[in-house]
Fold FAD-binding PCMH-type domain-containing protein.
Amino acid sequence: MISHLLLLVAFCILSIQTPSSSASISSDVDGFLSCLSINIPPSLIHTPSSNSYSPLLMSTVQNRRYALPGPTRPLVIVAANETAHVQTTVVCGRRHGVHVRTRSGGHDYEGLSYTSVNHKHFAVLDLAKLRAIHVDATRAEAWVESGATLGELYYAAAAANRTFGFPAGNCPTVGVGGHLSGGGFGALSRKYGLSADNVIDAIVVDAQGRLLNKSTMGKDLFWAIRGGGGESFGVVVSWKVRLVAVPETVTVFGIRRGKNESAVELITKWQAIAPSLPRDLYLRVIVENQQATFISLFLGRCSQLVDTMGAHFPELGMMEQDCQEMSWVKSTVFFFFGTADMPAEALLNRHNEEYYLKVKSDHVEEPMSLDAWESLWSEWLEKPEAAMVMLDPYGGRMASISPSATPFPHRNYMYQLQFYQSWAENGTAAMESRLRWIRGVYEYVEPYVSKNPRSVYVNYRDLDLGTNEVEGNVTSYAKARVWGEKYFKGNFKRLAAVKSKVDPDDFFRNEQSIPPLLPLKYLPVADI
């Protein structure tokens, strides 16, 4: 913390002056680059003319759809390796009319952290070098820089103490910055809540280039960054998180059932019991290749899990030989790789296999009937181009936290439904076929999922929901509501109000960034 404060003092003597508004300034790319070079080493500034630009841009591109020539690429990539570089980039961007997008792990499903479908003249702040993790084992806390991955955080926590864990997602290559900014759901969330529920401080560079922590940013901004979606309010360079207690030994299993082995009936039953299972038990379902796989993490021993499953879900037929006992950190290996026969060091591999991707998500508040699942399976899941379907249960700690406690509003649903479409082959025909399938099944399940609005997890970003439009010099709040209330429900207006306070000129913007809330006299009557 002392080093952060020293950086703040040092930054005050920089010769760069920040104007009161960047919105009315046309982009001055040469001036922006010159401004950067005053305080950032040239080796960290990558332009399209440099040999390093394309390798760096592609280094964490997880969705090949956004490696195609179509999307707009950044004017420059700043590979920041200290907080002062982030501050300089923001201040120079405001001064010269160049907006800034932030990339931590590059897992944004629609590529908005490093590319654009609508905007020009933007720079990318790549935080991959800001990846330090400092664990305070005495207090069971850690400071984690945004460029670290979830796998690196899991490994560091367990290295400090075998009984330390952290509630976050199942993909270890996801960047901490983006994941926590969107809420962060995973296998420990029914026990301990979202990642964002376990954030206790943060260091943010705001739109003025100032360095803020929880006490100086105020409660509204601290609320907004913990689930309000990445990069709308500033650049979070590091997070202080609460590590949670896990047993020395946990138990996992993966049980597959085909359609002829009552898979549809089991899924139907799963809906009714999964959200109400004991908090120590997380049981998800993945449907792929005509099979439903029931995958579990239990914070206890196998004998206890056999008894629990027998009491709550005997239809699955889970037996002791299905169990694998291991440390919690090895369970994170199991959930991602499908096997525990790999060392925990596999979590430190930052490279993820690249595919063409399109993802859609929903939330379910009432169980779908057996007939509905039968129809969904036969009409959509048996097609050759069918995607992976993931069902993740809520309940437990998730349901006991108010939907307004953080911007993530979906806590009271039974489960989350995700359609994850990925393919390796290149070409327009392959892409159109896959997109047609996922959009078709999304329309098909509409009668069975959340309504008014249809609720979507912001970490599974989907541009089909709508994109921003700029009116005057800022993003239109009225137009952004079309997609924003699907992600945030009633919290969207509060997020926009926070945006008005901390970034009224809308410097941090992308196709689905939070817009400033206009003064009441400019709002439609329905909003007043």
